[in-house]
Structures are given as structure tokens and as C-alpha cells.
């Protein structure tokens, strides 16, 4: 399910890039990176919990 969402984000990034909406691209890429981090096993995650 997360993979489908990541594919949707990729499509939105592509569309925003065509329209040169760089702030939108940056936000979508940050969201995508966060989702990819959540998909990793807990031992491999790079961020620290507070």
C-alpha cells in the first residue's frame, strides 16, 4: 500500500517538475523519503526517536 502511495507521489513530482513548481517538488520528495524510511525495518531506520 505504501508503495502505491510512493508511485502516486512520483507522478505528482513529475507533474510539478514540468510546471517548475519547485516548492511542491521539495515537499513531495520529503514526504516520499519519510515514507521510504517508514518502510525499512526498525533496525535500519536512520532517524532517532525522541
Features:
50 residues; mainly alpha; 2 helices; 0% strand
Give the topology string: H per helix, E per strand.
HH
Count of β-strands: 0
Could you say how many structural domains there are in total? 1
How would you describe the shape?
elongated
Poorly predicted runs: none
- First-residue to last-residue Cα separation: 27 Å
Largest sheet data: none
Structural notes for this entry:
- The longest helix has 18 residues, at about 20-40.
- The chain is about 70% helix and about 0% strand.
- The protein has one domain (about 1-45).
- The protein has helices at about 1-20, 20-40.
- With about 50 residues, the protein is mainly alpha-helical.
- It is elongated, with a radius of gyration of 13 Å.
Amino acid at each position: 500500500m505504501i508503495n502505491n502511495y510512493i508511485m502516486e507521489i512520483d507522478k505528482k513530482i513529475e507533474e510539478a517538475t514540468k510546471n517548475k513548481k519547485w516548492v511542491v517538488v521539495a515537499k513531495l520528495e520529503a514526504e516520499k523519503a519519510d515514507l521510504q524510511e517508514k518502510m525499512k525495518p526498525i533496525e535500519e531506520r536512520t532517524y532517532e526517536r525522541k
